[in-house]
Batch of 2 targets.
Target 1
Amino acid sequence: MEEPWDFEFLSRIADSCVSFLSEFVDDWLANDMRVSIFKILLSWLIFSLVAIHFAWKVYGNTVNDMYYRQGTGQNGGTPDTAPHLSGWESTAGGTLKTHRE
C-alpha cells in the first residue's frame, strides 16, 4: 500500500509548479524593464541556438572532414616517424640522446 505522504508530496510539488508558472505568466505580461531585458536575452539565446543548429547542418560535414585525419598511423594520416630520421635523432647532430644529457 502506498503511504499517504506520497500523494501529499506530489500535490505540494504540483502546487509549487503551478504557483511558479502563474507568477511567471504575471511577470511575463507585465511591462517592466527586467521583463523586457529577459525577453530580449531569451530571444537572443533562442536565435543563437537556431543559427548554430542550421550552420552545423550546412557546414558540419566540412568542418568534421577538415579535422578528421584518414588513413593509418599514429594520428590518422601522420606517419609514426620521419622516413629519414630515427625516432630519437635530431637534424642538427644526428646523435642519439640519452637520459643523462
Target 2
Amino acid sequence: MAEVEIEEFIDQNRHLATLVDTYRGISESEKHWKARREFLFRNINDFEDPHIDQLLALSMVWANNVFLGCRYSPDLLEKMKEMAEGIVVEDAPVFKTRDEIMKKQVNSISSPNNSSSFCHVLD
C-alpha cells in the first residue's frame, strides 16, 4: 500500500485504525511506528482475533530486522519479506554481519596492495 492507500484505508476503517494505534510501543519512533503500522494494516485481515498476537509478534520481528539488524531463521525472514512486500522504509539502516566484517578485514590484510603490515622486522 502506498501512503495514499494507507490513508484511504484508515479513513474507511477508522475503528481498525484506532485498534492498530493501540499497538504502538511507547519507545517506538515515528519512523519505526509508521513502517510497522503499515505492516500491520497490510496483514491484519489475514489474522483473526485469537491470532492477532502472532501478527503483532511478526510485525516486531520485521521491524527489529529492518531497524536493528536482528537476524532470524531463513524461513521466518522469507515469510516477513512476503508480508512486507511493497513497504518502503526511507533511510533504513544497512547492517553487516560479523562474518562480512571479518571477511573484509582478512581480504584487506592479505591484499598485495595493502601497504600496512602487522609485522615489522627490526634491524
